[in-house]
């Protein structure tokens, strides 16, 4: 059963189309990575899922109901961590954690104290003295200490240091092990790569790719670097081979996922001395969808 | 090292590097940001001058009419809210203008400067924008200097506009120049005061609140001083508003009290710079303490959280309003004694008995104005919670919008009722102490409680605004308070039409203790207040959260 189902979701702000027919499903118990650059529509999607914004078109279902109409009932089953956490300056971090957790239906004191310990947060300090990272810890601890079925995390670790990032990853794994569904929006690709079972890539308010990392990799090219004794002329002419470059017996090219077998057979006949092949990184996946944007921007800002 | 790099370093170093670097650039930037706000304030000041100038000959076409209106301003309550009433033994339109309305020009100028300085200093620091600015080639003192510079420009512009329009009314040139200069100088004095208050707290609202307390205290001191005697007493001279009124335009035309105002502005600005250099960017002088590691059980409910977020503001407002009521109440004997000094004709209109009950009625409605101001102030918390994103995070928990906003409304309504009760008790006790007679105590308490439904209607209105057009809440909310004060003080003086009076929620309750309690308006006001809250919550349920 799917926890989140969005179909053809449209949300406009004035003339700006923040969501432009967004389709996404998140199955129960999975950690779903939600990837995209700033302004792609990640936060807008989160806020529609929370029923804070009303979609202008399409359908959205959370646990099978409409978040705009059943917000309060649905919120009993989820916890949300915004990307930009604002707290009440006069409350301490500990008080803020308890406020959120209690409003969600009660605080598990042992778990809360353990999380404060793990995230190295001093709960007696007033929120106005906290850094961005510490404010984020407050929201994360409040969410993780609540007994909920769904975590909506909107770039939850943007202010955390690498050590805390590891603590966060561990905590998310533990949550998944107890059957919690997680929607994790991020542009920290390594984090999503490590944690996510499935990934949706959003661009300009639409999902452009969705699937497991393995499925996505099938759709894109593998990079091969090899040292060969023979001439790679014939290789360059093969279908599915791109961007072949050679220097002093070194050859480097990209090959479509579906053609890897053919190309490797051809390569074997060239006397391979060493070979490195790697699947596309998430960076490459994203770049294949945003590359045109970047090159367009490079043309105007790259020249100094 | 290549020559070009050396040259560049040299150029950089030759640029000014003092603590006020980039002040002028910043000042131009501030003027650009305020290109609508400041002209609007100054036009507002000008309109008041033009309106009064046009209204007076309409209201009092002849000298006799004018002389008949003099007691309104010259009796103690009139002096308390309008100023020392110079030269009314020979009233002219310009003297009537100065005696009746000048104080409000000064008040508006003070508010304009407080908001201007807070907006461009503490608010910038609180939002973190100041950090972005200060990371550039900008001196430490440049933002405050630029804000004060803009304040000076705004005050000069206000002085010129007010002077020109007063002359345009046909008022004497010297007096009009003095009116303009006093308006500008009062503004400058409060720009200086605000330069200090913005250093104290990390929150821009608290900084504005402290400056507001100074305005309130200054207004009250001058009010009591002017109430004691025609032309003011020694107490009048303890207040910046007193200094500005003591210029006595069109009568004595004194220029030197302006020096006191300018002096306050300069001392305040200098103190502001000294304090600013003792603190970190974004920090207040009052440092943060540690607090509880866990929340109390009550805090984890919508009502408990609303109470926690509202209680500081409530305590501050309640203390100020109650204190003001007590001080005003303590002057009851002055009112009774002044009846003896009144001319025979006036005494028939305002006998000792009537003067006292009139004064007590005035104190009750005065408490009503201030409590209504508290309500509007406190209702802004809802909006601040939403624009900061905290409301979004809260509403992502299983708390309904009605429960969240309703909790705040409940706390504010309860707070307003408590303020009026305490003010009534405090004022009543002070009146009794001053007269040595507890006969009026019950009347004073009842007349304050009589204001509760009207004040709650202001809250209902704020709720409706917040639910449907949250962006308009500050402007319309404060306008309603201003309208209530205006109607309460000037309705008779300016002979305002009935529908304008009806617009003020505070004009509807019975004028206790002059009149006896009337249940009908109280009931209607309460019903409308509830309707406003209901409409507001309905609006909040159907609109989106956090969309500007």
TrEMBL record, chain A:
<dbReference type="InterPro" id="IPR017871">
    <property type="entry name" value="ABC_transporter-like_CS"/>
</dbReference>
<dbReference type="GO" id="GO:0005524">
    <property type="term" value="F:ATP binding"/>
</dbReference>
<comment type="similarity">
    <text>Belongs to the ABC transporter superfamily.</text>
</comment>
<keyword id="KW-0547">Nucleotide-binding</keyword>
<dbReference type="InterPro" id="IPR025302">
    <property type="entry name" value="DrrA1/2-like_C"/>
</dbReference>
<dbReference type="InterPro" id="IPR027417">
    <property type="entry name" value="P-loop_NTPase"/>
</dbReference>
<dbReference type="Pfam" id="PF00005">
    <property type="entry name" value="ABC_tran"/>
</dbReference>
<keyword id="KW-0067">ATP-binding</keyword>
<protein>
    <submittedName>
        <fullName>ABC transporter ATP-binding protein</fullName>
    </submittedName>
</protein>
<keyword id="KW-0813">Transport</keyword>
<dbReference type="InterPro" id="IPR003439">
    <property type="entry name" value="ABC_transporter-like_ATP-bd"/>
</dbReference>
<dbReference type="GO" id="GO:0046677">
    <property type="term" value="P:response to antibiotic"/>
</dbReference>
<dbReference type="Pfam" id="PF13732">
    <property type="entry name" value="DrrA1-3_C"/>
</dbReference>
<dbReference type="InterPro" id="IPR050763">
    <property type="entry name" value="ABC_transporter_ATP-binding"/>
</dbReference>
<dbReference type="InterPro" id="IPR003593">
    <property type="entry name" value="AAA+_ATPase"/>
</dbReference>
<dbReference type="GO" id="GO:0005886">
    <property type="term" value="C:plasma membrane"/>
</dbReference>
<keyword id="KW-0046">Antibiotic resistance</keyword>
<feature type="domain" description="ABC transporter">
    <location>
        <begin position="4"/>
        <end position="229"/>
    </location>
</feature>
TrEMBL record, chain B:
<feature type="transmembrane region" description="Helical">
    <location>
        <begin position="451"/>
        <end position="469"/>
    </location>
</feature>
<feature type="transmembrane region" description="Helical">
    <location>
        <begin position="356"/>
        <end position="382"/>
    </location>
</feature>
<feature type="transmembrane region" description="Helical">
    <location>
        <begin position="522"/>
        <end position="540"/>
    </location>
</feature>
<feature type="transmembrane region" description="Helical">
    <location>
        <begin position="314"/>
        <end position="336"/>
    </location>
</feature>
<feature type="transmembrane region" description="Helical">
    <location>
        <begin position="476"/>
        <end position="494"/>
    </location>
</feature>
<keyword id="KW-0812">Transmembrane</keyword>
<keyword id="KW-0472">Membrane</keyword>
<feature type="transmembrane region" description="Helical">
    <location>
        <begin position="255"/>
        <end position="275"/>
    </location>
</feature>
<feature type="transmembrane region" description="Helical">
    <location>
        <begin position="207"/>
        <end position="225"/>
    </location>
</feature>
<feature type="transmembrane region" description="Helical">
    <location>
        <begin position="403"/>
        <end position="431"/>
    </location>
</feature>
<feature type="transmembrane region" description="Helical">
    <location>
        <begin position="96"/>
        <end position="118"/>
    </location>
</feature>
<keyword id="KW-1133">Transmembrane helix</keyword>
<protein>
    <submittedName>
        <fullName>ABC transporter permease</fullName>
    </submittedName>
</protein>
<feature type="transmembrane region" description="Helical">
    <location>
        <begin position="173"/>
        <end position="195"/>
    </location>
</feature>
<feature type="transmembrane region" description="Helical">
    <location>
        <begin position="38"/>
        <end position="56"/>
    </location>
</feature>
<feature type="transmembrane region" description="Helical">
    <location>
        <begin position="144"/>
        <end position="167"/>
    </location>
</feature>
